[in-house]
Amino acid sequence: MKIFYSVLLCTLISAASFSQKKEKIKKDSLKQKSIKLDEVIVTGKLKKDPVFSSIANKYAKKIVQPKNVADLFNNINGFSVIKRGNYAIDPSFRASQYEQLNIQYDGGTKAMHACPNRMDPITTHIIPEEISKIEIIKGPYTVRYGATFGGIINLVTQKPNYEDYGFHGKVSAGFESNGNSLVNLAELQYITDKFDIVANVGYRDFGNYKDGFGTEIPSSFSSSDYGIKLGYNFTKNQRLKLDWRQSFGRDVLHAALPMDTEYDNSSILSVDYKIDNIADVIKSITVKGYHSYVDHLMTNFNRPSFMMMEAESAVEATTIGGKVEMNWQPTEKINLFSGIDVMNIARDGGRVRVVKIMNGNTLPTPMPFNDKVWQDSYITDLGFFTEAKYNLSEKSILTAGIRYDNVTSDIKDPEADFAAMYNLNKRTEHTFSGTVSIKKMLSENYVLEAAYGRGTRTANMIERYINHFTVGQDPYEYIGNPDLKAEVNNQFEIGIKGFEELKNGFDSFQFETSVYYSHFENYIVGIVDNTLTRKFMPTVNPVNPKVFQNLDNAYKMGFEASLQLNFLENYNFKTAFSYVDTKNKDLDESLPLTPPFTTKLSFGFEKENLWANAQYNLVSKQDDISASFGETTTDSYQTLDFRFGGKPLKNVTLGVAVLNVFNQGYNSHLNFSFTNQANFARTPVTEPGRNFSAFLQYKF
């Protein structure tokens, strides 16, 4: 942290001596010299963007004090969140989650969790206020950004304002009444024609919230973060960027997990380079490299089970990866992207248990045990890809891509019982993905899209190597299977979006809708094995553990639709619908974590310096459940949120909100159940009740 503040001080001193005249001259030259790195996937250009892609942004206007980045998905059509508390939140899209979604930062940077219970998903390693927009590709419709099964989520962090030379910055603060929660952020930037530097620091302190029934939910946590970005323009067509950030989570209570987090420390380093406008055929070359490390400690010291057994687990995860891509254009109608990417995930760590009571008897001397959590395992994915865009006509674009992944996995320190179950040799898998899509402009304001994608996902480390740990929504112990086949998603989708100008007080009307169907091969689920018994606390039900297996007869299908009517210049009415139906024919039930039908209705007012909206959320009952996963039927619920904001002064943004206005008591269907908590039965975690929130930001 001392280094960080020294950098900020030097930046401030340098900026004070920067003359206004020099700023004006350099501002003009910057527009010629700066180039854009491939940090974004969705460019906002119809002919370049992937099919079925979208952008969500305007954080300051729409979101108030998100707990972590996953909270930013709550208002995006088709998304739900999987919640284990306020900290461990994962996004879910169309009933795909975890590694089924390809989640990354700035076009490729990844940070994988260390905890097998996902106390520290990728969404916890960056502060939400730093996200400028979320880019989404709604299926396996591109092969350029790694192996993709259910879709791509690219979290784009804020970039310097390259047209505003000199020293600038912002500070912001937020407060929530439900939990007495505080959020603070400070950011400074210094821009010249040759280099730019951005530094930020943030602190978040969230208390236990009360649900709509008045019950206090154990969910408090604190976290501090800082980051530094350095950019250097070698020439007008060459740029290098270095990005370093660290995050420190402390004293995290997980309502729906058996342990709490003492600390969660993460470090992420990424380097990006691009050279543009090289030649007539070779347009550009981009290079990315990244390294992330997560150090995580969890304990049960404040849980009921501590009286019988003390448990302390220190685990770590290292993710290293990179990508080289060339954009070349052999003819005027064909635009090609070819490249190589690699990602290595390595995890290790163990759990120390001190057993005080065994078989109902207090031991005169507590007995220590050491359990291997990750068994020193790794997975390496080396991918090769080519994707082409072909202009069939002025109004039609055909995109086709193919990808090959060579996946190597190994376990270097297995437990004896796990080694006895399998032939544990290093394993190499070969997977193939592909996509073909067409985008056609039916008219100036209407676009038709159709796509097929074959996405693949090899088993993650939990599914391969976990050994008798409770990692699901249910209380079963789970056992990994290193021989699992890769999941395959054959997804078809067709959609249309349009825009129409109106008259007589109605300004415009826009809409977007699509329907999709996915046939799954080798779908991975945990299935009870009656020939095996629990390893830890063997007399506690359920006695038989689950083992991860492949199933063939599974599918999902659904639709999304949204429309917006703009009227009287500054008013709008929006509505959005999302529905997904899943089926596991082998077990004759729904796939796990399938969200219910959801509707959002919003009425808003928006001007440049003033905005307000009311959003009504309607979520249907979900009784199409996965009983084998421990799911229970979830009742329908309705909530209302009010948000109001504006810019009372030139550089000041102020926002206030009332969330869950009617103090509705409810739980989301995807929430995990209370686990190892005093005074709580094993029922789904309930959501916050009424919450007053305020947000203030000052830019300079």
Describe the protein.
The protein has 700 residues and is mainly beta. 6% of the residues lie in helices and 55% in strands. The chain has five helices and 36 strands. The chain has a 22-stranded antiparallel beta barrel. 43% of the residues are buried.
Name the descriptors.
disordered N terminus; 4-stranded mixed beta sheet; 36 strands; 6% helix; mainly beta; 700 residues
| Average pLDDT metric | 91
User: Helix/strand-derived class?
Assistant: mainly beta
**Strand fraction:** over 45%
How is the biggest beta sheet arranged?
22 strands, antiparallel, barrel
Shape: globular
Q: Quick one: how many beta strands?
A: 36
Radius of gyration from the alpha-carbon trace, in angstroms: 26 Å
Q: Work out the helicity level.
A: under 10%
* Ends distance: 23 Å
Residue runs with pLDDT of under 50 for 5 or more positions:
1-33
DSSP summary: helix tally: 5
Provide a compact summary of the structure.
This protein is mainly beta and 700 residues long.
Which secondary structure elements does this structure contain, and how are they paired or packed?
Layout: H1 2-16, H2 20-33, E1 53-56, H3 59-62, E2 79-83, E3 89-93, E4 96-97, E5 102-105, E6 131-137, E7 152-157, E8 166-176, E9 181-191, E10 195-206, E11 209-210, E12 216-217, E13 221-235, E14 238-252, E15 260-276, E16 282-299, E17 309-331, E18 334-358, E19 361-372, E20 377-393, E21 396-411, H4 416-421, E22 427-441, E23 446-457, H5 461-465, E24 467-469, E25 478-479, E26 487-501, E27 506-521, E28 523-528, E29 546-551, E30 554-567, E31 571-584, E32 598-607, E33 610-619, E34 637-649, E35 652-659, E36 691-699
Parallel strand pairs: 5-7, 25-29
Antiparallel strand pairs: 1-6, 2-3, 3-4, 6-7, 8-9, 8-36, 9-10, 10-13, 11-12, 13-14, 14-15, 15-16, 16-17, 17-18, 18-19, 18-20, 20-21, 21-22, 22-23, 23-26, 24-25, 26-27, 27-30, 28-29, 30-31, 31-32, 32-33, 33-34, 34-35, 35-36
